[in-house]
Every structure is written in structure tokens, then in C-alpha cells.
Prior knowledge:
Elements: H1 6-11, H2 26-31, H3 34-43, H4 48-66, E1 69-72, H5 74-78, E2 95-99, H6 127-134, E3 138-143, E4 155-156, E5 163-164, H7 180-187, E6 193-198, H8 204-210, E7 213-216, E8 237-242, H9 245-255, E9 286-289, H10 302-317, E10 321-324, H11 327-330, H12 333-346, H13 349-357, H14 362-366, H15 371-379, H16 385-405, E11 411-415, H17 436-446, H18 451-456, E12 460-467, E13 473-480, H19 485-498
Parallel strand pairs: 2-3, 2-6, 9-10, 9-11
Antiparallel strand pairs: 1-3, 4-5, 6-8, 7-8, 7-12, 11-13, 12-13
Amino acid sequence: MNSCSINAVEQTASGSEPGARLPLSWAEWAKHDGVALAALVRSGEVSPGELAGQAAAAVARVDPALSGVLELFSDLIAEPARSGADTAGALYGVPVLLKDLAARLAGRRQEGGSALFRGAVAGETDPFIARILSAGLVPIGRSTTAELGLGWDTTTNHAGALSITRNPFDLARTPGGSSGGSAALVAAGAVPIATSSDGGGSTRIPAAHCGLVGLKPTRGLCPRPLDSSEYQSRISTDGVVTRSVRDSAAVLDHTARVAPGGAFMPVISEAGRYLSGLDAAPARLRIGWSCGAWGRDAAIYPAATHRLEAVCAVLAALGHDVVPVTDEAIAPWAELWESYTINWMSARGQLALLAEQRGLSRDGLRTLLSPMVDRMVDASARYDKADLWRMMALNNCVTRHYGQLFGRIDILLTPAYAAPVPAANGRASTFCDGDLDAWFADQLDAGRYAIPSNEVGAPALVLPAGTGEDGLPIGVQLCGAWRQEALLLRLAHSVERARPDWFGLRPATHVTAATPIRTPAGDVTKGRVEP
């Protein structure tokens, strides 16, 4: 495995001498999404090596302030052909960052944002990453994640010191979690596409906080890692974050393909037709909107409601019927939150079992985990087999009720996140040192609109909807019935065409900034939990 420091790449982008000319100006680089960059490669205007070199230089330009990249793959940057990227793929030559969690690339480290897995190297390439390579995408490095994907903030200490990933729109705020590094670097213009995973909003919440597009596919549509399945982990799916709807569609054309025997419950997909079908505007739809409590007590962030209203107006102007939906019509909320909580907390018992298999004491395990993840391990002991049977019964009830909703509407429109963007390493961080139940309730309150799609396995797509008064992006979410990714993408694309100003927002920390923004003196990447 070959990797290099980010600062070293800044001096040797494209394998050339310091100050060497890059193939595109930073303004040109930033305006090209993945589909556009791939077109430049096909036309011969740029090479995959030049794109990889410029992406590495872009990371070096913005990541000192963001702390979203763990390492760059120097060998693949120098020779993209060594990545195994398919030259016939629709996105051939486009650089991509890989999230440090879920789907793995053989021979590369994947540590899950946790000291428990420090130094772990993937022995095999997981099917999802194989599909990423089939699209022609070239992996250039590894992006940060919340510890084991268990928070809406991306702060870790797996490298031996506390590292806080920052939002490029405001360095005091989090880019979200758990796919925070991927979202921060895509929003800052370093790469057009980065991989993600989503077990409760971990693709969609960072997309919302960073003004991006994030799709959580239907359970079973895309392949799971080799050590997992839809039966073993019903809530999680792999995906990507992008700046354009067409990039999300182009990636899905490749990733929504599961080899025979490659899934516990494969789903028939429209792979190969997601991108080509974007320009077919959806027929008149019945779109139900909700910014309700959804069984939670905390109030909704007013700016999220205001942006939802703006999207409702756009959809109505496009000719759709936009109607309110009651909370009761969507799901039985007490049952949903109980089922999700049992699943989430009981699963942490696997960490205690892993530690035992390694001969690691409980106290030894405690030293390797952040406070909230450690408390989740303790909380897993609350549950037994009776709780797991109850969870399955509750999930059955919730899923059937949710499915009935789509007999009355075509799309459910909601906010993406119910609270303001939190402080980096603040209340959403697993490094908070307080009561677990209160912390987790806060996560459920803020993530209430994202979580149900994970619980039931249905698709949901977040798209940008402008900014709040603080200048931070706010996203909205389109939820669909099972296997309706094509419809979600077409509807999102119609909004993108109607309101292009909501997409591709330029944050303060961006590759086009005249002077790269550096980490302020003191604490931006390392330190204690902030208030």
C-alpha cells in the first residue's frame, strides 16, 4: 500500500515540480461535476493522471482547514490505471475519495474512525467499491468518518490525537456525520464525488449541511460489504455525495447492480437508465409534505420549515399537487423509535464480543472508544432475545404502515434535518461526556426525518434548498416508495433546473479562494469537546 501526506502532494501534484501548471484553473475545476470531467477525459483534453493530480492539489489546498482526508493514495494518483478503474465506465478518470467505513478497497487501510481498528487493511475489495471502479472512478484517498458511523458529527481520535472535521461554510460547525469528510471535501470543490454510507442519515445529513445531493438507496439495491447483508444490517446502505443530481444518477447506474448470490435480498434496479432518464420530467405527482413532530418532543428549526415551504412553491409551479400529510399517516411513531433504538443499541454488543475474541478486557476496550460509543456498548447489555423478537415485530408494523402511505401519495417531502447545523465536536459528537440516553434522544430529535427511511428500507434523497440566515446550507428530503430511485432523481433534477442557484454553493473554504484557508492558531483540528 502506498500513501502520502497531504502536504507532500501539494508540492508534487501531477508528479511534477512545485508550481507546475495544473490542467484546469481552479474556477474551471470547481464548475465541472464528475460527468463533465469524464467528458474531458473522453475527448482527450485531460488525462486521468492530470485529474488525479489536480484533485490531490485541491485536497492540499483546502484540507488543512477541514481535516477531512486521512491519507492520499500516492501510487494511484501517479498511475490511475493501477486502481482498476474501468476505462469503459461512464465516469472514467474522475477522482473519488473513499469513506473510512463500510465498503473497502483491497490493500488499503480502513479503520472505521476508531482506534479499535487502527491499522486495519482490507483483504478484499467489497462489491460496492468494485462497482465504483466499474464506473471508471479513480480512488485517490480516504475520508474521515464519525467513530464506527455512530454520530451526526465527524470527530475521531483513531490516529492518536483528537481530529475534528469542519464544515467548509463555517469552520466552527460540523459537516455532519458520519460521512463528514466526504461531504466537506466535495463541498469545498476538492473532488466532485465521494463515497458515503447511511444507517440513519449518514449520507443525507452531511449532504444537507454542506449543500450537496445525497441518495440513500432502497435496501438491497446496491451490494453490501462482504461481511454484511441486508438481513444482518437492515438499516445501512452505501452511496455517494455529489454536487449535482446527474452525478448521483451516473454513479447509481453502476452501483445498483448486485451479482448473483451477492445479496440476501437483491432488488430489481433500473441500472443503466438512471442518468439517461433524468430529462424526462415526472408526470404530475401528488407530493405530500410534512414538517411534523414525528413522535419527538423537540421543536423544529424554523429555517428548515421556511426552506421546505420554498421547495413546495417550486414543486407547485412545476405542476405537481403539493398537499400536507399528517404525522399519523406516515408511521406509528412510538413503535418506530423503539424498534430503531433496540436495533441501534443492541448491535453495539458486537464490539464487546470482538474485544473478547481479541483477548481485550472491557477496560481495555473502553480506552479505545469515544465516551458515547463506549456507553452504547454498556447499553447493549439492556437487551436480550425477547427484545430482538419485539424489534422485528415492531419493524413489521412500521414498514407496512409506511408502505400504505405511498398508496395515497407519490413522494413525501420533508426537511432533511430538524435542528441547526451543530458546532463541530459539539452536541452531536460521540466525544460528548454526558448521559447516553439524553445524547441519543437529541440525535433522534435532530435526525427524525432521515431515520425512518433506514428503518423501513425505502429510498430517500436530500437536495440543497438554499441557506438559512446564518449562511449555512439547508437541505430538504424527497422520500419515495421502494425502488423509486429513478423518480426521486428525476424530481430532484427538475428542482435543480428550476433553482440552479441552490446547487453548487461556494463555501468560504473552497479551492477557488485566492488564499487557501489554513487552520487557525490554537484549536480547529485538535482539542476538547466544545460547548
